[in-house]
Amino acid sequence: MAAKPFNIIFLLLPLLSLVVVGHETVKSEQYPLVVSTWPFIEAVRAAWRAVDAGSSAVDSVVEGCSACEELRCDGTVGPGGSPDENGETTIDALIMDGVTMEVGAVAAMRYVKDGIKAARLVMQHTEHTLLVGEKASEFAISMGLPGPTNLSSPESMEKWAKWKDSRCQPNFRKNVSPANSCGPYRPTNYLGHPDETCSSTVQMLTSNSNLLRVGLHSHDTISMAVIDRMGHIAVGTSTNGATFKIPGRVGDGPIAGSSAYAIDEVGACCATGDGDIMMRFLPCYQVVESMRLGMEPKLAAKDAITRIARKFPDFLGAIVALNKKGEHAGACHGWTFKYSVKSPAMKDVEVFTVLP
């Protein structure tokens, strides 16, 4: 039976929703919609220009994350930041289509600065989900991205040199000897040193306990969600990882379900923070599944953060949840978190603050 005309008209009308963040209630027109971790305002504007002009959610996410990479947002996205123990900058990125559930990602990618575009190439031109390291670089260049390129910058190399002068402290090593130097490292129970005493082992463990704290300028991610004019959802991430990470380390940025996740009929999630901890819980998958079961975004985000905090009370992290009604909310632990939103009801990007 043919649909009644008024039903079709009703479906096409823009919907209004109430968005609750903390004690603040905001009216927001539904589609299109762009949400991003942190006050990465220019990145959100770039995504908005694309989606408002009719681009798909996937293409708009790429535009937004690419803008952040070019701007080197906070030094934690794109080239030129977050050197590893060897002084090298590498890129992690992910793109996910909430309609098809396709994912493309790159991790520990060297020599190619366009992380999100490389991730989309993986999604578009392979049957794989994740490519890593120098082979990811070779693939991206073979598909037309510029490279090889030196991803370091004078700033990142200066930061690395100062860290080396400080005996490579703090770092992400644990249970190693020597604790207070730049290595080479060995396990504290290394069999080649049978005369090592229990007291010396305790001393080494204690002296190396000052691990890096994840923070706004030591390690962070742009994680972005876009709902396009058709109501379709996509998410994407890009990061250059944790500063002074052990070479080869991959955080949660390119891991679907951890840094980002989207299901077209439900909603999306964006996450940021201590990826080594957060990826063990797949918080964004948890958030979207909670919303599928009827939980509102604020409660879904809070529930996912609380699950992590129970096991790791000192971790730093934040989540933004977005449902198909256009309702969005954040939750965080260990820091004050900000995220950015642009909707048709807003004159420009608005930044929302979430308290721990």
From TrEMBL:
Specify the species. Answer: Glycine soja (Wild soybean)
- Site (Cleavage) found at 220-221
A Gene Ontology annotation in the biological process aspect, one of them, is:
proteolysis
| Annotated SUPFAM superfamilies | N-terminal nucleophile aminohydrolases (Ntn hydrolases)
Q: Where's the active site on this chain?
A: 221 (nucleophile)
Q: Which PANTHER family match?
A: L-ASPARAGINASE, N(4)-(BETA-N-ACETYLGLUCOSAMINYL)-L-ASPARAGINASE
Q: What is the lineage of its organism?
A: Eukaryota, Viridiplantae, Streptophyta, Embryophyta, Tracheophyta
Which reaction is catalysed here?
Cleavage of a beta-linked Asp residue from the N-terminus of a polypeptide
- Binding of substrate: at which residues? 249-252, 272-275
GO CC, alphabetical:
cytoplasm
Signal peptide extent: 1-22
Which domain of life does the protein's organism represent?
Eukaryota
Q: What is this protein called?
A: beta-aspartyl-peptidase
Q: How does it assemble?
A: Heterotetramer of two alpha and two beta chains arranged as a dimer of alpha/beta heterodimers.
A Pfam family annotated for this chain is Asparaginase_2
- The Enzyme Commission number assigned here is 3.4.19.5
Gene3D superfamilies with a match to the protein in the record? (Glycosyl)asparaginase
User: Which keywords does this Swiss-Prot/TrEMBL entry list?
Assistant: Autocatalytic cleavage, Hydrolase, Protease, Signal
Quote the InterPro entries the UniProt record gives: Ntn_hydrolases_N (IPR029055), Peptidase_T2 (IPR000246)
